[in-house]
Amino acid sequence: MSDAEAGAEVRVYLELGSRRTFACACEWPGWARSGRSEEEALAALGAYTPRYRTVATGAGLVFPEPVSFQVVERLRGSSTTDFGAPGQIPSCDRVTLGAQDGTRLAALLGSAWQRLDEAVAAAPSRLRKGPRGGGRDRDAIVAHVLGAESVYARRLGLGPSPKSPDPVAAVTVRDWILAQLTSAVAPAEDARWPLRYAARRMAWHVLDHAWEMEDRSLAPSPEWYAGQT
Question: Per CATH, which fold does 10-92 belong to?
Answer without folding.
Answer: TTHA1013/TTHA0281-like (3.30.2390)
